[in-house]
Amino acid sequence: MLTKKNSLVVPGTLESLSALRQYTMDACTTAGLTKDQAYGLSLAIDEIATNIMVHGYGKNGLTGNISIVAEITDENVTLVMEDTSPEFDARKLAVPPAESLKKPLEERPIGGLGVYLTLQNVDRFDYQRIGGVNRNSFIIKRAKK
Amino acid sequence: MALNISMDVNNGVAKIVLEGEVDASVSDKFKEAVEKAARQKPNRLVMFMDKLTFMASAGLRILIFAKQKMGADVNIYVIGASGPVLNTLKMSGFDRSVYVQASYVD
Q1: In this predicted model, what pLDDT tens digit does every residue of B18-73 receive, in sequence order?
Q2: Of A52, A62, A61, nearest to A83 (Cα)?
Q3: Subunit contact A17:B67, Cβ cutoff 8 A
Q4: Least CB-CB distance to A39: which of B68, B84, B93?
Q5: C-beta separation of A106 from A36 below 8 A
Q6: Which of A113, A116, A117, A118 to mutate to test the interface with B (most CBs of B within 10 A)?
Q7: DSSP code of B99?
Q8: What pLDDT score does A100 carry?
């Protein structure tokens, strides 16, 4: 059975991050995910949304919206986030290698953890460019009852 | 929930108390507190995170910034982090570089 939660559309600015997290947490509650799963999915949404807001829109001098919609099936919870900033596949960003995560903080680069945390906290992360739209999909598997 | 933050430095120990959520919209506030503490050249930085309910990589970046700003000799303590915030610290290997403790005694 498919349950689709009403979508949320917010301005693509950092002030919208908490609304996106709240939407995600609500969807996770509806789907009966564990608290850890819900937090992980919220973190993943936050990280990719931040990239869109800062790099996709902000650094390109653009403004635009971000939409998010949750689809809940018996197997999965899928959050689909769309924006109209320039084409960008976050999966192509280099994630820190394992050795880098063992380094002391004084030897670490400041950035690069956002996509790593995204990938660590979802079962699958997909990207498509459709028309002029970036579509990022975040998938969490539901526990079998 | 917004981020509430307070900072003081006493006897060379800088203490920062974080309450709420750290994401990219408020991480500058966190960074400012670290910069303010760094100016007083503390020999230890203690961050209380027991009331922190969310921390994105924007928050982790400030921990890296703090270490690099204050220097390798200034030990960083993270106090009271629990649940997913603690998991995020561990997942990112930060527990190797900072002292993660349940409580702190002066």
Answers
A1: 999 999 999 999 999 999 999 999 999 999 999 999 999 999 999 999 999 999 99
A2: A52
A3: no
A4: B84
A5: no
A6: A113
A7: E
A8: 87
Q: Please give the Cα distance from A70 to A138 (Å, whole number).
A: 9
Q: Residues A42-62: pLDDT tens digits?
A: 999 999 999 999 999 999 999
Per-domain residue ranges for chain A? 3-141
- Give the nearest partner residue to B91 out of A35, A53, A117, using CB atoms: A117
Task: Look at residue B106 and tell me if it is in a domain.
Answer: no
- Determine contact, residues A53/A81, Cβ cutoff 8 Å: no
The dihedrals phi and psi of B9, each to the nearest 5 degrees, come to -125, 125
Q: What is the rounded radius of gyration, in angstroms, for the C-alpha atoms of chain B?
A: 12
Which residues are paired to A133 by β-bridges? A130
Residue B25 and residue A18: Cβ atoms within 8 Å?
yes
Cβ contact, residue pair B23, A18, below 8 Å: yes
Give whole-number Cα distances, A103 to A73, A107, A138, B87, in Å: 41, 6, 29, 18
For residue B31, give its domain range. 3-101
Task: Report if residue B49 sits inside a domain.
Answer: yes
Of B21, B61, B88, the CB nearest to A110: B61
The shares of helix, strand and coil residues in chain A, as percent rounded to the nearest 5, are: 45, 25, 30
CATH of the domain at B21: 3.30.750.24
Q: How many CB pairs under 8 A join A and B?
A: 84
Min Cα–Cα distance to chain A from B69, Å: 9
- The hierarchical CATH code for the domain A3-141 is 3.30.565.10
